[in-house]
Amino acid sequence: MEILKPSPPNSTPLTPIGFLDRAATVYADSPSIIYNSTTYTWSETYLRCLKMASSISSLGIKKNDVVSVLAPNIPAMYELHFAIPMSGAVINTVNLRLDPRTVSVILRHAESKLVFVDYQSESLLLEALSLFPPNSKHPLVVLIKDDSPENPSSKFGRNYEDMILNGDPNYNWVRPGSEFDPLTLNYTSGTTSSPKGVVHSHRGTFIVSMDSLIEWQVPKEPVYLWTLPMFHANGWSYTWGMAAAGGTNICLRKFDATTIYAAIRKHDVTHMCGAPVVLNMLSNVPEGTTLDKPVYILTAGAPPPASVLLRTESLGFIVSHGYGLTETGGLVVCCTWKRKWNGLSDVEKARIKARQGVRTPGMDKVDVIDTETGKSVQRDGKSLGEIVLRGGCLMLGYLKDLEGTSNSMKNGWFYTGDVGVMHPDGYLEIKDRSKDVIISGGENLSSVEVESVLYTHPKVNEAAVVARPDEFWGETPCAFLSLREGVKEKPTEKDVIEFCRAKMPHYMVPKTVVFLEELPKTSTGKIQKFVLRERARGMGASKMSRL
């Protein structure tokens, strides 16, 4: 047949920013944001974002300039996910728990022209700016005062609400010229000490936003509780996704288990996301705690132990598990549930849910390959290989890092650096980060598998396993543990080792156990294994490791 060419009516660039425009029509009077005593509707949110976009533009911010944000999960943080790109700029959300030096490095590397900062992070930004080289140009700064009565005087004159007040309600927001125009700049964090600037396009973000709603089967007008930081991969794309679904965003500046349960009951929350540390927080509650209605919770960031999944679901949560990276913009592998699994025992269900799963509908292909041969590993649930991805939501690349981009995106794949296996049914399971695989006596062992056993110990709250040098075996597992609150009789190193010996092959049993008050983590709940690896190396090589 005749090959027809695209034309302007059918080739408008894809962008998730249009979700807000639509929400203002379809869900005009429905609540968009609830935060303390503040409630906005979708028509109000659209107008606020439009006016903010015009004010950003009036400051001289041009197309593709980077605008950074240091803020928790408050209304301004949500609005800026639309307002900044509506001005033609690129949004860069910065992890609030980073030290001033790293924040300074990010702002300089990104060449940020404007920074929005929450009043509680003003001192962090001031110190970061003080570390700029002499005579270098500082970005403009806008203070977000929030609705808290605790609003001290600021060194920054520009105010967020004033910018909205003075904005143009008839501003013609900037559409992308190409759907491959940059939309976000996110810096990797947590499991490595060298963050990279990940650039995502309007097209990729549109795809992953819609894909995430479809895979999780999010209905129209959900009530979404923001327990996942919006600065972490833009809230796994649900910042934009909630506009597409007309959802209600319940914003929390900070939270603990008590705050989460109170918010769920007050607002009839239906959906929430979080790293496994959030599941652990929710499940470590007094006996008898249950939900009045089921709440869907999506977890990712690290393979959650089956025991934690089981405890969480026993409280009334319906847990879904997925896998993604900063470089994918959201979750691209999910443990899509099969009806035939409904008849399994709770323990077996939890074990299956701990697997990462299959590619989401918007992904082209996911595989586990042998990095030496480039071929797929056997689908036996045992053969280890590197997880590789291919799909439209993958990053454009790393900012100012051609070598890093080419090393990770080659041979038609994005190489994740994660080690996994493929099961006979085509479901993927992560076994480790490549650098976290422990090679003991020539045997490759998964720290994740050892951690899963440790999490079944009734007194263990958190567990992380890394390699410790060993004079005989090369490396042996070293376990770092924190204990549950209220534990009266603390276990010893010997107790933990004997517990593990009864549940796993002896070569996998930790030879060293270290108890900590709390494991080092990022703000998104990822345990910083590079910190623990350094500590384990600092202990020196084990001289006698008996199996």
TrEMBL record:
What is an annotated GO biological process for this record, any one? Answer: phenylpropanoid metabolic process
What is the organism lineage in this UniProt record? Eukaryota, Viridiplantae, Streptophyta, Embryophyta, Tracheophyta
One GO term in the molecular function aspect is:
(E)-caffeate-CoA ligase activity
Q: Name one Pfam family in it.
A: AMP-binding_C
Keyword terms: Ligase, Phenylpropanoid metabolism
Ranges for domain AMP-dependent synthetase/ligase: 21-399
Please report which protein family the annotation says this sequence is part of.
Belongs to the ATP-dependent AMP-binding enzyme family.
**Which pathway does this polypeptide act in?**
Phytoalexin biosynthesis; 3,4',5-trihydroxystilbene biosynthesis; 3,4',5-trihydroxystilbene from trans-4-coumarate: step 1/2
What range(s) does the AMP-binding enzyme C-terminal domain occupy?
Answer: 449-526
User: Per its UniProt record, what InterPro entries does this chain match?
Assistant: AMP-bd_C, AMP-bd_C_sf, AMP-binding_CS, AMP-dep_synth/lig_dom, ANL_N_sf
**Native source species:** Penstemon smallii
Q: Which domain of life is it from?
A: Eukaryota
Q: What is this protein called?
A: 4-coumarate--CoA ligase
